[in-house]
Design brief:
This protein has about 950 residues and is of the alpha/beta class. It is built from 28 helices and 36 strands. The strands form 10 sheets. Strands 8-14-15-18-20-19 form a 6-stranded mixed beta sheet. Strand 23 and strand 24 form a beta hairpin.
């Protein structure tokens, strides 16, 4: 940017500030009627009607006794009126105590400021005849970007004196006070507009005061009553052909004039287009764009806000001096070919544009360059300047362009802000804001947002019409837009916009907890594109069968899905291990190119549900990744899915691999203690009984407790085994990298879903199809093992009987496995159940009972079709875990199955856990969508970090 261009921009900004709110409150705006019906306060049909903006600071001006309080009570709500007398009473208990006026006006100004900040019309009832008093009020209005309005009550001195004399609290007021007020009033009236009042209403005489009525005018930017649906179109810059193509994709039908020019576009479903400005400059046909947009606006088919380029063109058409830069020269040349009537219409159209619109009940704000929440619906030169130009840091980048202040990163408003102005490679949501300028005139795309659907629709540019000063896409680290990760992305209270569940909030304390984990223990964030959500437990069961009570039972899960309208569900075996996410790339080069991790020997990641590396030894991670990659290759999925990387959701076993410390401290200690105590206790009781002592009841109870303890030990030992040394170097080619060892024997990985691939999230693929893809991976591994002559098996070794409490040491060799290669991938058994078929439901229950009686943890019930919604649009739980009776001993203790304990445990509060599961699920889906779309790393991590933050919410860990 040249010095002259910088000077011009400063001049433009200064001109906008000087114009002030008049551009926002213009009576000539033809786009929408804004005047509400007159209030019933008009006493006489011949009385004056005083228009007052519905968000303004109304300052009543008049001598004491002029009737200001009566006027305010007649025309405004009691809560809207702040009087100096009332504030004196607050301070001193005496409304006429003039000695506390200083403190009283401090209170008055404080209350006025709070009301204006909250967007409430406020009326100041005080004499306000002194310029200094009014100046403070005008300053307050400017600080809060509202319009100051003066209403002058010019009542004869005699009337004021008589009224004061009739009031007991003012009977002794000297007449000279009224006379002084009248003199000050006369001096002030002529200068009120110069002092900054947007509108001045002067009521002369008692009759005008008594017969006047108030009409509240809706601000021109206030279209909250317009609920859409809308199609919001980003910057056009003279690209008429692309605009017509985009409107066609959105479903608009063009209207042509006698010369074949497009002069309107109508949507058959009554949708309204909204243009964010910058219709002109740089492109090949600015007049054509103006003709179309002006026609749509005039016909009521569209709305349009002003862009900085329209503002500059309007100043040129008004005869003001401007620099013909940034494409304006081309627009002027194109307009010179049009007739005078068209150019006059363009000038009038531009003069009628406002800075922003508030739409859809206040839930949508459309502007050109963005707008912080404190400016929404406000009317001032400052607001208009920000809406047209945004804000800059005062610095320039390497291309000489101003560095813009990232206001959207700090935005936490309820309303979605849709804007343009700054070209970006692709549109994406950030803190409930979205920029739609995707650089069509620079060879990018023209983008529109469908509201309230929040769907993006775009068309490519036909060519590069104007060479940009700065490339649309940069190669700087940190993602597609060159922005690196930043602490401010995750610190404090956060709000994440998701496609499937709207805006989700993360509390500040949860963010702090997640930051501790992410910064100290997590893997390289470039390899951490997803974290799995927590799983919702099924409703508490009261099922009793064969004398056994159940805390969880599949009948509740089937009933819940049936009630939600889900007919087909798939029951998947729940592997008892640790949740693992596996990012596997075809090779190291892919990991470097796609994920930016150019480290030798790194081709992906295996990490836990909190983002930590699963293995301390990176070599083990790579062995597992190579085996999985070989299976993907053998199954032909690289080519079929057209990808060089896969993201898998899986369970990694044994449980003891990651939970050894937990097992030793929490579970093995119980097993060891019971093993040490109960034999002696039972022996003593049996000996006492043999001597004739009556201890049968106590003995029976202790035998039951010993049996429960043994069942507890057996339950957790099923999921613990030794992980042996790695197999021979002669493994399947690709699984272990030629001569490198394969995965350690005893480790099993049970993948159950492919989450995403290059350019696509697979989270919406039905689960039966997902499992079919996983079966192909397992079959490919079987073929690899068979091809190389390795011994099949290599699964779980028997628990080490000599270990404390039955917990085996990981890493020790497994007898009989030396020289053998263990299989890595484990299948997931499943059963499809029809929730509306009693026989099918019964078969599902039997399948679960067989699974759990054989030592299985239980199952997860999922809708066959992923991403299911209820009739009211809410997401259905993506999965409900139903754990087996014996497995739950590990969670609730050895004796939880006793009837008295079950009765107590059945009082479970599941609501928060279920809500958490849905929120984390929506955030996980959002992370996958952003990853698949190639969005920058900080955008993906915004959702990933939020999942980890929600994990710190206090929830019963047994659920």
């Amino acid at each position: 940017m040249t010095d002259g261009e910088r000077m011009e921009q400063r001049q433009e900004r200064g001109a906008e500030r000087q114009q002030g709110p008049s551009r926002e409150q213009r009576p000539g705006d033809r786009q929408e009627p804004h005047v509400q019906p007159p209030s019933p306060s008009a006493v006489d049909a011949h009385g004056r009607v005083l228009p007052v903006p519905d968000l303004s600071l109304v300052v009543l001006i008049g001598a004491t006794g002029s009737g200001k309080s009566t006027f305010a009570a007649r025309h405004f709500k009691p809560t809207e009126v702040i009087s100096s007398d009332f504030c004196r009473g607050l301070v001193s208990d005496d409304e006429n105590d003039q000695s506390v006026s200083g403190d009283a006006f401090e209170v008055l100004h404080f209350i006025v400021g709070k009301r204006l900040a909250a967007g409430r019309l406020t009326v100041v009832d005080a004499t306000n005849v002194q310029a200094e008093a009014r100046a403070q009020l005008v300053r307050l209005a400017r600080e809060h970007d509202v319009l100051p309005v003066a209403i002058v009550l010019d009542v004869p001195e005699q009337v004021c004196a008589e009224r004061n004399a009739a009031r007991a609290d003012r009977a002794g007021l000297p007449r000279r006070v009224v006379q002084r007020h009248q003199r000050e009033l006369r001096r002030s009236v002529r200068h009120l507009e110069r002092e900054g009042f947007r509108t001045v209403h002067i009521l002369r005489g008692q009759r005008e005061v008594d017969t006047a009525g108030i009409v509240r005018e809706r601000r021109y930017n206030d279209l909250r009553h317009r609920t859409g649906p809308f199609d919001i179109v980003g910057d056009i810059h003279g690209c008429r052909s692309e605009l017509e193509s985009l409107l066609g994709r959105l479903g608009y039908e063009p209207v042509h004039d006698a010369l074949g020019r497009t002069v309107d576009a109508v949507h058959p479903e009554g949708r309204t287009a909204v243009f964010v400005g910058d219709l002109v400059d740089r492109g090949p046909d600015s007049p054509g764009v103006l003709r179309l947009v002006m026609g749509m606006v005039a016909a009521g088919h569209a709305l349009c806000v002003s862009g900085n380029h329209e503002n500059k063109l309007g100043r040129y058409l008004d005869g003001r001096k401007v620099q013909r830069t940034h494409g304006l020269a081309e627009t002027i040349e194109q307009l010179e070919k049009e007739d005078d009537g068209f150019r006059a219409g363009v000038a009038e159209f531009i003069r009628g544009l406002v800075s922003h619109y508030v739409l859809d009940g206040g839930g949508l704000v459309v502007c050109h360059a963005g707008l912080p929440e404190k400016y929404h619906g406000r009317t001032s030169g400052r607001v208009r300047s920000f809406a047209l130009y945004g804000d800059t840091t005062g610095e320039t980048d390497e291309f000489g362009l101003p560095v813009r202040y990232p206001w959207a990163e700090d935005y936490r408003g309820r309303a979605a802000v849709v804007y343009g102005h700054t070209p970006i490679p692709r549109a994406g949501w950030l803190n409930n804001t979205i920029c739609l300028d995707t650089g069509c005139v620079f060879g990018g795309r023209m983008t529109a947002l469908r509201w309230p659907e929040r769907e993006l629709v775009d068309v490519p540019a036909e060519r590069v019409w104007y060479e940009p000063a700065r490339p649309l896409a940069t190669e700087a680290p940190g993602g597609a837009d060159g922005r690196p990760l930043d602490l401010n992305d995750v610190a404090g209270r956060r709000t994440v916009e998701t496609r499937h569940m709207g805006r989700l909030a993360v509390r500040e304390e949860n963010s702090a907890a997640a930051l501790e984990v992410m910064s100290r223990f997590a893997i390289d964030p470039r390899l951490l594109p997803y974290l799995p959500p927590t799983m919702a437990p099924c409703a508490t069961s009261k099922e009793e069968a064969q004398g056994e009570g159940f805390l969880e039972h599949p009948a509740e899960a089937f009933a819940e899905y049936r009630a939600a309208g889900v007919r087909e569900v798939v029951c998947e075996e729940k592997h008892m291990g640790s949740r693992a996410v596996v990012l596997v790339c075809r090779d190291e080069a892919v990991a470097g190119e796609r994920f930016g991790v150019a480290h030798k020997g790194v081709s992906g990641a295996v990490y836990t549900r909190t983002g930590r590396p699963f293995f301390d030894d990176a070599a083990i991670t790579e062995r597992i990744l190579r085996r999985v990659g070989a299976c993907v290759d053998g199954a032909g999925l690289w080519a079929e899915l057209d990808t060089d990387w896969l993201l898998l959701d899986a369970e990694l076993m044994p449980w003891s691999l990651k939970a050894t410390g937990l097992l030793r401290r929490q579970y093995a200690a119980v097993g060891a203690a019971s093993g040490a105590v109960f034999p002696g206790a039972l022996g003593a009781l049996e000996a006492a009984q043999a001597r004739g002592v009556e201890v049968s009841a106590l003995l029976e109870r202790q035998r039951g407790r010993a049996a429960d303890a043994a069942a507890f030990t057996a339950a957790y030992r099923r999921y613990c085994w030794r992980v042996g040394a790695t197999a021979d170097a002669a493994g399947p080619e690709g699984a272990a990298g030629g001569d490198e060892p394969g995965a350690p024997a005893g480790i099993r990985l049970a993948p159950f879903q492919i989450l995403a691939v290059q350019g696509r999230s697979l989270a919406g693929v039905p689960h039966t199809e997902q499992l079919a893809l996983i079966d192909r991976l397992i079959a490919a591994e079987e073929a690899l093992v068979a091809r190389d002559g390795a011994v099949a098996g290599g699964g779980a070794a028997a628990p080490d009987e000599g270990a404390v409490g039955g917990v085996a040491e990981a890493g020790a060799g497994v007898p009989g496995e030396r020289g053998e290669r263990a299989r890595l991938l484990a299948p997931t058994r499943r059963l499809v159940v029809d929730t509306e078929d009693e026989a099918s439901v019964a078969a599902g229950v039997v399948w679960w009972l067989d699974l759990t009686s054989a030592g299985g943890e239980g199952m997860v019930v999922k809708p066959v079709q992923a991403l299911v919604r209820q009739a009211d649009g809410r997401l259905v739980q993506p999965g409900i875990k139903c754990r087996g009776r014996e497995y739950l001993r590990i969670i609730y203790g050895p004796e939880y199955t006793r009837p008295e304990n079950l009765r107590r445990l059945r009082i479970r509060h599941l609501g928060h856990k279920r809500s958490l599961a849905l929120r984390e699920y929506a955030l996980g889906l959002e992370a996958l969508d952003r990853l698949a779309a190639g969005e920058p790393l900080w955008r993906v991590h915004e959702a990933v970090f939020a999942v980890l933050a929600l994990e710190s919410e206090p929830v019963d860990p047994r659920l």
